[in-house]
Amino acid sequence: MKEKFTVNCAVFDGEKVYENATVTVENGIIVSLEEGCGKAESDLFLMPGLIDGHAHISQPQQLDMLVNRGVTTVCDVSVSKEIRDMGHKINIHTSHISAKGDCEDGAGHVEKTIAAGGDFIKLFIEIPPAMAPRTIPADILADIVDTAHQKGLKVISHAASVPAQQMAIDAGVDILLHTAMRTATPKELVQQVLDKKLAFMPTILMMKEFTIEPFRDYEEIGFEYACNAVKLFYDMGVPVLVGTDANDSKFVPAIEHGSSMAVEMEMLADCGIPVLDVLKGATSLNADVFGMDSIGRIAPGKKADFILVKGRPDKNISDIRNIEKVFIGGEAVE
Ligand SMILES: [Zn+2]
How far apart, in Å, are the Cα atoms of 166 and each of 107, 161, 169, 172, 324? Predict the structure, then answer.
């Protein structure tokens, strides 16, 4: 590892853009960000490594696919202990085991997740028969969430319908995952999400896929509902997070690891989220909401996980496809 080096160019630090700044890295940690010192050395754009807030890792090569597209941290719900223990450079923040409708003991489930190496809790809340034989009873949901919070773990919940979202809100989860597609999302629901300071991760690409054969589960208008919901959550002030739901399952639409990140970001921008807020949703907001304090920003003391991008993704979101270089812990990934 190069002990100390500097990069001078346009920088997005996770909050705002500096047209010309110098970032200094020492021993894998960012030590300074200084604005406007000298002429920019390159036309590249430096920003925190992307955080895919929701993916299913089933094969080691998926980790390379993520890093190649600028993802330096993945919040995963499926990785095996073997893959996690391989020591890949990417940061894997995992739920490891997730609760479906068969969970009988809330506190016990949280203990089991922690023992299995889990960093957060993923809950599956859906109103049967959609995707689940039965739903987790409200008292067990509340027990899971309360225990997780006592142990310092965040809770993310699959909830792809308004009634399921309401259950997740009532239980006090931290992040609502997916988007309601059968109906419009009511303002009153979003207001509760805002009042409880929760976040929203739409996985809009996956929702779109569910309106297309062979997994068509919703009418075309479902995507309109989803896109409008994204805009409503954003406009009312709820943090909108970027997560792709990348997976290679046979039972749901396959979403490719890595390349889907740019597509998700483009689609969120198309739904009406300003580009800079899409960048935040893929970096600092994901880090904040999951409690990953050492990453997600270009700031002194943070881990030197960053990407160099050709173009200006803060102006044209599709430029996020042009990843030139990826650094994890201050080391360039070849
Ligand atoms: Zn998923």
Answer: 22, 9, 5, 10, 42
What is the pLDDT, as a whole number, of residue 126?
A: 86
Asked if residue 153 has pLDDT above 90, the reply is: yes
91: CATH: 3.20.20.140
Q: Model confidence at 133, in pLDDT bands (50, 70, 90)?
A: low
- How far, in Å, is the centroid of ligand 1 from the Cα of 166? 19
CA angle in degrees (0–180, nearest 5) for 152-155-161: 165
If phi > 0 it is left, if psi is from -120 to 50 it is alpha, else beta; for residue 28 that is left
**Are 183 and 242 in the same domain?**
yes
Helical ranges in 178-283 per DSSP H: 187-195, 204-209, 221-235, 259-270, 275-281
Tokens of residue 13, six digits: 């630090």
Taking the centre of ligand 1 as the mean of its atom positions, its distance from the CA of residue 249, in whole angstroms, is 10
Instruction: Kindly state whether residues 304 and 247 are assigned to the same domain.
Output: no
Do 94 and 52 form a contact (C-beta atoms < 8 A)?
A: no
List of residues 6+ apart from 217 with CB closer than 8 A? 181, 210, 211
pTM score, two decimals? 0.96
| Weakest mean pLDDT among 76-85, 100-109, 223-232, 242-251 | 100-109
Write out the residue range of the structural domain in which residue 328 sits. 4-47+296-333
Q: Say how many Å lie between the CA of residue 76 and the centre of ligand 1.
A: 8
* Residue corresponding to tokens 């809100």: 169
The encoded tokens of residue 120 equal 């957060």
- Do 209 and 245 belong together in one domain? yes
